[in-house]
Amino acid sequence: MDPITVPWEAQQRGLLHDGFGPTDALYAVSHPAGAPEHWGQKILQRALLHRAEDVAARIETLTADEATTVHQLATGSRRALAALSTVRARWHQATSDCTETAPTRSSAAARTPAGRTPTVRAGPAARIPARPGR
User: Fold this and answer.
1) Which residue has the higher pLDDT, 60 or 22?
2) How distant, in Å, are the alpha carbons of 51, 66, 113, 115 from that of 110?
3) C-alpha distances in angstroms, 131 versus 86, 125, 126, 127, 134?
4) Are the C-beta atoms of residues 80 and 55 closer than 8 Å to each other?
């Protein structure tokens, strides 16, 4: 959990006031009754849910307007979902294992069971000429 997200989320929820400022919010998260990781994940989870709520409201507004074209709906929806992606990225960064790496192509091939070839994607059959070329 980074020291910028906590005060920002506290401000968005209306928790900050004269008696409880950003420093108090950081202290409450860093010295909680329980594991700090748990509370940090709860804050990010709430941020993700709140952003998803906002995105849904924006898309609902676009669909409710009869003057909105399909292109405007698609573009507006993509923009709204991009805002959600930033919070999702923070969520995945905070909850993923740091030693975990993305699988490479060679490691994926090594996991293929012996004697089994990967399935070929569906598509048109290869064209083989009926007679050999002259």
Assistant:
1) 60
2) 39, 53, 8, 12
3) 58, 17, 15, 12, 9
4) yes
The predicted-structure confidence for 45-59, as pLDDT tens digits, reads as follows 888 898 899 999 999
Give the count of alpha carbons within 13 A of 8, CB side only: 9
84, 52 Cβ separation under 8 angstroms: yes
| Cβ-based burial of 26 (10 A; exposed 0-12, middle 13-18, buried ≥19) | middle
Please give the structure tokens belonging to residue 53.
């709520």
Q: What is the pLDDT of residues 74-117, one digit of tens each?
A: 999 999 898 888 888 887 887 776 555 555 555 555 555 555 55
